[in-house]
Design goal:
Strand order of the largest sheet: 5-4-3-6-7-8-9
Number of strands: 9
Number of helices: 6
Helix content: 25-40%
Distance between the termini: 37 Å
CATH superfamily: Vaccinia Virus protein VP39
Shape: globular
Bound molecules: S-adenosyl-L-homocysteine
Order of helices and strands: HHEEHEHEHEEHEEE
Low-confidence stretches: none
């Protein structure tokens, strides 16, 4: 077993003990997806400390506990269609792909992930290709605050940048019975779970969090990243 594999296992033991990882699906995905492959070389040695790390364009790969929390809140199942807004490194999209379209199973779901910066979309695509997720994850460079250009409905949607408010465009792209998680607020944000039941939405706050800011039409207009 490599040093990275050992460090990944230890981190997962910790996240389980803390009650962050609760389901076998999320545990399995976190064990399989190599986070170090989604991090610039100079920070790879920190891949399994439970922290966000710099990637490109002043953006960050989210901390493992935050990825796990969001995956648990979404309750993703095999075969589902998932939309992510905020590709960043591609790591979280790969976790989602490993849950809805597991490497060793015939059931195929898929993930569409939207990234505002072209450089990051390219970085993520390279990372996803190297790790074998490029056939299950489509990276599209566009303003994800306006939703997916494909205009289909998704079973699950995650937004990994903080929004000033809940974008209606994304709620409209959520299938009835679907779940959406999104950090809302400017500095200290609330991780918010939106459930669409009988075409009405139920909103639940899951706790405080800190993400970089959402850009684009329904994002923040100033230039700071936090
Ligand atoms: N999920 C990522 C981390 C995301 S950091 C990972 O696993 O690494 C937030 C990302 O959201 C950044 O890459 C940022 O460029 C992107 N972003 C910000 N505003 C966006 C928008 N309007 N549309 C799409 N992506 C956006």
């Amino acid at each position: 077993m490599s040093e990275s594999d050992k460090a990944r296992r230890l981190l997962i033991v910790k996240l389980k003990a803390e009650g962050v990882i609760r389901s076998p699906e999320v545990e399995r995905a976190m064990l399989i997806v190599p986070r170090e492959e989604f991090i610039p070389q100079e920070y790879r040695r920190f891949a399994y400390s439970d922290n966000p790390l710099p990637i490109l364009k002043g953006q960050t790969i989210s901390a493992p506990h935050m990825c796990a929390m969001m995956c648990e809140a979404l309750k993703m199942r095999k075969g589902e269609r998932v939309l992510e807004v905020g590709t960043g490194s591609g790591y979280h999209a790969a976790l989602c792909a490993e849950i809805v379209s597991p490497t060793d199973k015939p059931i195929k779901g898929y993930v569409v992930t939207l990234e505002y910066y072209k450089e990051l979309a390219k970085f993520a695509h390279e990372n996803l290709k190297r790790t074998g997720y490029d056939t299950r994850v489509d990276v599209i460079a566009c303003d994800g605050s306006m939703g997916s250009p494909t205009r289909i409905k998704y079973d699950k949607i995650l937004v990994t940048a903080a929004a000033p408010s809940l974008p209606k465009t994304l709620v409209d792209q959520l299938r009835n019975g679907g779940r959406l998680v999104i950090p809302i607020g400017s500095y200290l944000q609330q991780l918010t779970l939106v459930e669409k039941v009988n075409n009405e939405i139920k909103i639940k706050e899951l706790g405080g969090c800190i993400f970089v800011r959402l850009r684009g039409q329904l994002g923040f207009k100033d230039e700071t990243s936090l």
